[in-house]
Amino acid sequence: MEKVHVNALIIGGGATGLWLLDQLRREGRSALLVEAKSLGTGQTISAQGILHSGLKYSLQGLLTASAREAREMPAIWRKSLEGNASPNLSQTEIRSQSFYLWGTNSASSKLGMWGARLGLQVTPQAVSPHNAPALLKGCSGSIFSVAEQVISCESLLKDLAATNQTQIVQVAEEGGTEIRLGSDGRVRSVVLNAPDGQQVEVIADWNVLSAGRGNAELRTAAGLDPRKQQTRPLHMVMVRGGLPEFYGHCVDGATTRVSITSARRENQEIVWQVGGKVAEEGVEMDSADLIARTRAELLETMPGISLEDARWATYRVDRAEGVTMTGGRPDSFRIEKEGNVLTAWPTKLVLVPQLIQGLASTIGTSAARSCDGLEKLASWPRPSVAKAPWDCEQSWTSLNLSESAAA
Ligand SMILES: Cc1cc2nc3c(=O)[nH]c(=O)nc-3n(C[C@H](O)[C@H](O)[C@H](O)COP(=O)(O)OP(=O)(O)OC[C@H]3O[C@@H](n4cnc5c(N)ncnc54)[C@H](O)[C@@H]3O)c2cc1C
Question: How far is Cα 173 from Cα 12, in angstroms, rounded to an integer?
Fold first, then answer.
């Protein structure tokens, strides 16, 4: 069988794998990324793209470990998005430069104090009722604007993939990577199977698992414990039809009741992604019940909203993370280093740059080598970027929940 030798074989092409590939190549390391579906399938394409400053994790007025981890991140992303740092993300679409944060009770006025008091780089600015967006006019609590950017995850994936096309290959969805172990239990090589039956054996100094939810299965194949991964499911809501572009979290104490971001469908129509508590509790609900609950929640928290023309749909997706004792969200990213395998979970998109620093510093301990045998992959197919959930959805439901409308 043909052989390829590299410093790092990266399995999984979401934000983690693609960013790592770019970083390693800039550092002079040879790397190859393999993808079994479309780039970003699973979490990255489904994400809301909020570059959190840590504020969301400090709503009780405490600097939590999660907030501490996130607080340096928006500035790092901002430089890349401006094209002033690597990776150059100047082609990534910034959907919004800021976010509304509003409460539904009198205690919400305290929100404005937390950012500065806790040493976060992003401080909420009070918005007077006069300047409030129409959707929030008449809201009983306080309204703030927070300079947290929101990006299009689809364009991030395209931007990251564009510069490294030659090092990204498509493998078969089933059995695309066959992990072969040596007698010492370490990964000796990984046989790649293309969808058309071509095969190549990759021998890498480091084998990086950046496959999101797929990491558990890959770990089993590599003789490693899959229980080092936990998944936390979400049931997200999408709503379109006469809605304005809007970005905001409605909070109640430390709970985010709804978290709304906007995107454009292929036909340019605005669609809202609704996450937060509704999406966590919605895991136990069917789609119709979740839509009814979300509709009620939007009407209650946004006095100026009109949902008369709304069309609704939902999607389910798992967040894949390093396991925690409680099953709750880890405070930071997670890297498991076992033999010549690195398993990576960013926990949040915003933490990807920190995660990559950790991975690259480990891989950087190997002597740089060129990608020996890359030409053997020249005829292999290249994966495309995944389609966003709102562009895949065929069946949208109207206000009358039994009535279906064509997309
Ligand atoms: C609904 C939702 C909203 C979110 N919103 C935010 C947010 O606003 N801000 C934030 O900071 N974070 C957010 N997150 C978290 C963030 O999306 C993730 O932390 C991040 O995208 C994970 O990226 P990843 O590349 O590690 O994994 P993924 O994006 O899941 O990518 C894994 C890739 O590996 C591929 N793969 C799987 N198995 C194999 C295999 N065997 N062989 C080859 N390839 C394989 C998959 O097809 C996929 O392309 C959100 C998550 C969800 C689910």
Answer: 11
Residue nearest to atom 35 of ligand 1 (CA): 12
d(CA 369, CA 325): 40
pLDDT at 402: 47
CA–CA separation, 241 vs 272, rounded Å? 10
Which of 348, 352, 359 for mutating ligand 1's site (highest number of atoms within 8 Å of CB)? 348
**CB-based contacts of 118: which residues, under 8 Å, 6+ apart?**
54, 58, 61, 62, 63, 67
Q: Is the peptide bond before 383 cis (omega within 30 degrees of 0)?
A: no
Give me the residues of the chain with pLDDT under 50, please. Answer: 401-407
For residue 402, the CA-to-ligand 1 centroid distance in Å is: 33
Give the C-alpha separation, 78 to 262, whole Å.
20
Beta strands in 339-377 (DSSP E): 341-345
Please give the C-alpha separations between residue 34 and each of 37, 137, 177, 314, 384, in angstroms, as whole numbers.
Answer: 10, 49, 9, 29, 12
If you measure from the C-alpha of residue 63 to the centroid of ligand 1, how many angstroms do you get, rounded to a whole number?
26
Q: By alpha-carbon position, which residue is closest to atom 21 of ligand 1?
A: 44
User: b vs e for 72-96, b when ≥16 Cβ sit within 10 Å of the residue's Cβ?
Assistant: ebbebbbebbeeeeebbbeebbbbb
Nearest of 16, 103, 113, 116 to residue 71 by alpha carbon = 116
pTM of the model: 0.95
Cα–Cα distance measured from residue 98 to residue 53, given in angstroms and rounded to the nearest whole number: 11
Residue nearest to atom 31 of ligand 1 (CA): 14
pLDDT at 384: 97
